[in-house]
């Protein structure tokens, strides 16, 4: 069972990354120091981040890539399944793929953090985010957009491109908001924990695309 990063004592780099991701998601990259990460991970040696990753920025880059790779693999696999079944058959099906693959299927006990982390990073330092990706780990998303363009071939390209930008911003903001709410363990969150919420998110995104 995964341990809460605030109490676990493992010195492993994977544990340090988990702790850093949680703290960056909660406070933003500028609100967290390497010393705070080390302390939250139970490390007496405050140089642990430098030792394992080289620098705070290098750690941030690794976190971006780790999450992007995992999401991209899930998206490509989902699209391959849809294509094997003769689809995707609708914009809604594509949006369902985008939403479902953005969710960690095996989150740690303290909850999902990646969507909050990347949305916050893009707001505070988009250049770092884009440079970390190096134009990679985005093939699944681009394939989804290609399917939308195929399904929406009747829509003027400039209008469709605008709607795709709106959709891209919406999915990040919605899923980051969901993570923030669910991370609050002091109360119930019936809307965000409802099994129909994510399908409804997909339908809302499809509405943005279809107009």
From TrEMBL:
One of its GO terms (molecular function) is DNA-binding transcription factor activity. The keyword Transcription applies. Keywords: DNA-binding, Transcription, Transcription regulation. It comes from the Bacteria. InterPro entries: Homeodomain-like_sf, HTH-type_TetR-like_transc_reg, HTH_TetR. Pfam families: TetR_N. Residues 18-62 form the HTH tetR-type domain. This is TetR family transcriptional regulator. It comes from Sphingomonas ursincola.
